[in-house]
Specification:
Chain lengths: 111, 234, 192
């Protein structure tokens, strides 16, 4: 596990967020960034030779359980926030008849 | 106005700078993060929370205040989805868009097989949250997936969405009340209401209760969300 | 480099695969293909969670990413690709002899092909005979365009939302027909 490789995933997500014209593509990119950040946090607590954070008979070294506890809620909350964003996208399409940033911001030059 | 190609080049250059800063910060990681919490949880976590799974112990005991607000954000997001979708849910939904695409029969028979298994697996994950990997949040998501399969089996299934949201609000109140019980028994809010001295079998009662409540709340919240989406689309 | 274990090699391979899937998601044009890619992204990422000794997080990711996230993406993407027309005229303007052969249908088909949308015509009698003015029916059933007919003059009205960017093009295309009039009504503001 290399945090640099994970950080490249986050940067790819930011690149897509900045350049994509489609609103749903932007929501996809937010999902990518979120997964990358979760991987970074888990990588922080992990170390070689550690076991999963469950106390058992002969457990001598566990990985840090704190980042994992924070990240579980992030996944569940992130999915609901994605759902809210997509519902807003559907409403935007009903309202403007288009789902692209350039057309919605510059309403005059629709072609 | 710059051309789009040069704008993309500037963006990539800015990202390279950010990447360099991140790589530089990795050298000094020890000042940002250390092993003190990990050692504390490893030595005292089992005695203080009574949970073998330390992740569940942290979620339901040490950081219960955080978990309460995470569950609250779930409630707010569900309310937002319903508010934005602005359907009159009391109306019967016109199903003119569903009829065009028939679900294959093979898929329906397979879904009938999978549905009880998935629901039982979700309940197992919820109930065993303090022993094995799992807990309220994960088990609730699995149970919601099981309920989603029901919609493939029966397309014309009617759901009273207002009742589900009401149940979810009541469950959230119940979670807060169970979390506040420790104020009366141990005079500290938001921790286990059974003292560690009472023995592990009594501490587990609290863990299972709160896991079941959180699991049901997450399942009902996700159920509301995909019902709103299914009403929106086909 | 020589003493890499099998688990480390798998972890590196999965991370490089993750980068490639992310680049494919960002660069791909077709949104329907991206749904498959996002599901596989979720699968690879949960495998990486297991390698990071976090089975709790992996279960949450699998439970969320297997069914619920692809479902909401599928619904929102399929909704942005279709144009729903409610036919309240009830004559051969669009449908004659149970087939789409009317000249109104040809106009609408030409219009939706211009924007690469799927035309979806609804003539369910239960919805079409819903009482009230067209604007209220449009809000309650979430359709994009309503076709209705003035019985006295024989003029067909195509009613859509004023805020929609598509209506200008429809007005241009309908200018050739003398008995078709495009009307727009003001939609309620966003979020009211």
């Amino acid at each position: 596990m290399d945090p640099l490789l994970t950080f490249i995933v986050i940067l790819v997500g930011f690149y897509g967020l900045a350049t994509s014209n489609n609103i749903i593509k932007s929501v996809f990119c937010i999902t990518i960034i979120e997964s990358g950040i979760i991987l970074l946090f888990l990588n922080l607590g992990n170390f070689e030779g550690g076991t999963i954070p469950i106390i058992g008979e002969d457990v001598v070294a566990i990985v840090d359980p704190l980042p994992q506890a924070l990240m579980i809620t992030t996944i569940v909350i992130g999915s609901t926030v994605t759902a809210l964003a997509l519902m807003l996208c559907i409403k935007l399409f009903h309202h403007y008849g288009s789902i692209e940033w350039s057309k919605i911001f510059g309403k005059g030059d629709a072609s | 106005m710059l051309s789009s190609v040069s704008r993309k080049l500037i963006l990539i250059a800015a990202m390279a700078v950010v990447f360099g800063l991140f790589a530089a910060s990795l050298i000094d990681l020890a000042s940002l993060y250390n092993d003190a919490t990990k050692d504390y949880f490893f030595e005292h976590g089992f005695e203080e929370t009574g949970s073998n799974n330390l992740v569940t112990g942290i979620l339901l005991d040490y950081r219960l205040f955080d978990s309460l607000f995470e569950a609250g954000i779930l409630l707010v997001a569900v309310s937002g989805v319903i508010w934005v979708s602005k359907h009159d849910f009391a109306d019967k939904n016109p199903n003119f868009m569903i009829d065009k695409y028939k679900t294959p029969d093979l898929f329906i028979s397979f879904a009938r097989l999978v549905y009880p298994l998935l629901l039982a697996f979700g309940l197992y994950i919820i109930l065993n949250g303090h022993l094995s990997p799992g807990g309220g949040f994960q088990g609730g998501a699995l149970a919601a997936t099981a309920i989603l399969i029901l919609y493939f089996i029966d397309k014309n299934k009617e759901t009273d969405i207002k009742r589900i949201v009401t149940i979810e609000k009541v469950l959230y109140l119940a979670i807060i009340l169970v979390a506040l019980l420790s104020l009366f028994t141990r005079s500290t809010a938001f921790t286990n209401f059974v003292a560690p001295a009472a023995g592990r079998q009594w501490q587990v009662v609290y863990l299972v209760t709160l896991n079941v409540l959180i699991g049901l709340k997450v399942a009902f919240g996700l159920w509301t969300i995909f019902t709103a989406f299914l009403k929106e689309g086909r | 480099m020589a003493d890499l274990t099998l688990l480390e090699i798998t972890a590196y391979a999965l991370q490089i695969l993750l980068i490639f899937i992310a680049i494919a998601i960002v660069l791909h044009k077709n949104n329907r293909t991206i749904i498959i890619l996002i599901a596989s992204f979720s699968l690879v990422v949960s495998a990486l969670y297991v390698i990071n000794n976090a089975p709790d997080v992996a279960i949450a990711e699998v439970a969320i990413g297997a069914a619920i996230i692809p479902l909401i993406y599928v619904i929102s993407i399929s909704r942005q690709r279709e144009f729903i027309v409610l036919d309240r005229a009830m004559d051969d303007f669009i449908i004659s002899d149970e087939e789409f052969t009317g000249y109104g249908y040809r106009l609408l088909k030409q219009f939706t092909d211009h924007y690469h949308l799927d035309l979806n015509i609804c003539n369910d009698p239960m919805i079409c005979q819903m009482e009230g003015p067209d604007q209220n029916v449009c809000e309650r059933t979430n359709v994009d365009l309503i076709v209705s007919k003035d019985e006295k003059t024989g003029t067909y009205y195509l009613k859509g939302k004023e805020s929609s960017l598509l209506m200008h093009k429809l007005e241009e295309m309908a200018a050739d027909y003398s008995d078709i009039e495009v009307q727009t009504f003001k939609d309620v503001e966003f979020g009211e």
